Structure formats: C-alpha cells, structure tokens
Amino acid sequence: MTEEKIQNILKHLEDGLTLKDSCDLENVSDESFRKWKKENVNSEILIKQAELRRKSEKLKIIHEAATTDWRAAAWYLERKYPKEFALKGRTEDPNKEALEKLDKILSEMKAQVET
C-alpha cells in the first residue's frame, strides 16, 4: 500500500467516511489495510487523529450556530450533558418497557413449566 493511498484513506476518514468506505474508495482490501495497521505502530493514532479532526470540525459548526440560534446550544447541551439538560424521559432506555414485558412473560412461562 502506497503512502499516497494511506494519506487519502486518512483524508476520507477526516471527511466523515467510514473506514470500509475509505478503503473501498482507494481500492485497498481489508487484508491490505490490516497488514498496514499491523506493520505501523502509529496507525491507530493516525486513524484516531483523523476521526478527531472530523469531530472537532463538526463541533465548531455547532458552536458557531449556537451563537445565533439557541436551538443549536440546546441540542449540544442535551447530548453532552443529558442528565442535566435532556428532556425528562429521554435518558431512559427506550426498550425498558418492552424488556419488562418480556421478563414478565418469561417468568409466567417458567412458572407454568414448573407446575
């Protein structure tokens, strides 16, 4: 794998593509990429840095929008600090009720089998 392909993959990651899509775009197989990662001790750091640059860029956009639109600030606060700012009930597991029903059904079935 060439240095150019590696840099292109890292750029695609920074642009927001998944690792698989980045490799596919550069015609790099999973096997080739795994080999490169194994042979290069800094590979994980380079990948993480590309992803963090993308995250940082998106956060800057949100913070910029928050200076003129309160909804951007509210959105950020709800997600960054959900215990303090999320609407009541949003921090609960959306599957909680279904799991409770399933537990009840399983308990009833177990009780029937035991009798």
Shape: flat
> How big is the Rg?
23 Å
- Unreliable stretches (pLDDT < 50, length at least 5) are none
Largest sheet: none
Number of strands: 0
Order of helices and strands: HHHHHHH
Round the mean pLDDT to the nearest integer and report it.
88
Q: How would you classify the helix and strand content by structural class?
A: mainly alpha
- Amount of beta strand: under 5%
- Domain count: the total is 1
Report helical residue fraction.
over 70%
Distance between the termini: 65 Å
What is the number of helices?
7
Polypeptide structure, described:
The protein has one domain (3-114). The chain has 115 residues and is an all-alpha fold. It contains seven helices and no strands. The radius of gyration is 23 Å and the shape is flat. The protein is 77% helix and 0% strand. The longest helix is centred in the middle third of the chain and has 24 residues, at 43-66. α1 packs parallel to α4 (43-66) and α4 crosses α5. The model has no long low-confidence stretch (mean pLDDT 88).
In brief:
By secondary structure, the chain is mostly helical.
Task: Record keyword descriptors for this entry.
115 residues, mainly alpha
Write the layout of secondary structure elements.
Elements: H1 3-15, H2 19-25, H3 30-39, H4 43-66, H5 70-80, H6 82-85, H7 96-114
Helix pairs in contact: 1-2, 1-4, 4-5
